[in-house]
Amino acid sequence: MTTTSAPAGIAAGLTTTRAAFIEDAREHGRLYIDQPYDLYSAENHDAWHRLYGRMHDRWQRYANARFLEGLATLQLDPDRVPRLEDVNKFMAPLTGFRAKAVSGYVPAYLFFDCLRQREFPTTITIRDGEVLDYLPEPDIFHDIAGHVPMHTDLAFADTLVAFGECAREAAVRIAAIDDEHERVRRMTSVIKAMARFFWFTIEFGLMKGDDPDTFKAYGSGLLSSYGELEHCITSPEVQRVPFQLEWVINQSFEIDRYQPLLFVVDSFDHLFVEVGRLVEWMHAGRLDNVAAGEPAIGEADLASFLEAGRAA
Fold first, then answer.
1. Alpha-carbon distance 249 to 270, whole Å?
2. Domain count, the chain
3. Is residue 5 in a domain?
4. Which residues sit opposite 263 in a β-bridge?
5. Residue 181 included in any domain
6. Can you give the CATH number for the domain in which 170 is found?
7. Would residue 3 count as lying in a domain?
């Protein structure tokens, strides 16, 4: 087992928004980084321990079976922040996926292209133990305990790869448009459509349960949230509607509240089919004019797609 150390002079502690190592990486333009495991403080490990421990019963009750199988496969230590190399040791032989440490936000195309290459951009900081339910940005608990167990399932992993292929093909198709204004407009719409699809499936997806009128969570945003995991299944305030691609790509969402509307797929085969339809619609231009609204598409996201399309 290897040990990764930080540059000299970097203080210990990898707490979200308060990590000198991450600030240094960003200042020097390093997006893809190593995990400096020795920098995790006792408080960081304690935060992981408490986050992981309180989720056990809720996962058993509300998570889909493949997530639970993946969790068992990864053999995560409930008491300590995981080493990405250990996670990859269990995951890569099953699906080819590997967790890839990043220093912060990954522009949209780069994120999707990582998925195409069976790499998952992974945050290495962990939220403050004093505010376990407040998450200003993704952390390692969300990424490893929420996302990665599903990446041990080959059908789900292949779905992510197909999503990445859709991004690459979209970049190439729209880069061929001569008019710059129209090129930017269409690419903005396509990215918005893909972001909404990803949000309502990979992040906040529900699936039919074994019994009629029952549901299980497979989306990482649900599976990493102590409060919302139960809320999404049991609350009468949540609308749970059958997945319809037309609705999903035109449905805006907010990131700082429990989701009032969730889409339900029948199975992972159904999810894979819908990704295939998304690709077909992209080629047919049916993602070029989706409804306005959230999420906002930033300049970095747009530039990442346009640059990839020109380079292809």
1. 17
2. 1
3. no
4. 241
5. yes
6. 1.10.800.10
7. no
- Kindly report the backbone phi and psi dihedral angles of residue 120, in degrees, each rounded to the nearest multiple of 5, phi listed first: -115, 110
Q: How far apart are CA 27 and CA 176, in angstroms?
A: 34
Task: Write out the two tokens for 164.
Answer: 């990445």
Q: What is the pLDDT of residues 11-48, one digit of tens each?
A: 679 999 999 999 999 999 999 999 999 999 999 999 99
| Digit-coded pLDDT (tens) for 94-117 | 999 999 999 999 999 999 999 999
What pLDDT digit, counting tens, does each position of 80-90 carry? 999 999 999 99
Segments forming the whole domain that contains residue 159: 20-311
- Identify the CA nearest to 183 among candidates 191, 194, 170, 174: 174
For residues 186 and 177, the answer to whether their CB atoms sit within 8 Å is: yes
pTM assigned to the model: 0.93
User: Which tokens belong to 186?
Assistant: 């269409």
| Identity of the amino acid at 58 | R
Alpha-carbon separation of residue 77 from 29, 101, 269 (angstroms):
32, 19, 31
Domain assignment of residue 158, yes or no? yes
Sign, CA dihedral 191-197-200-202, equals negative
Q: Exposed e or buried b for every residue in 17-40, given b needs 16+ CB within 10 A? A: eebbbbebbeeeeeeebbbbbebb
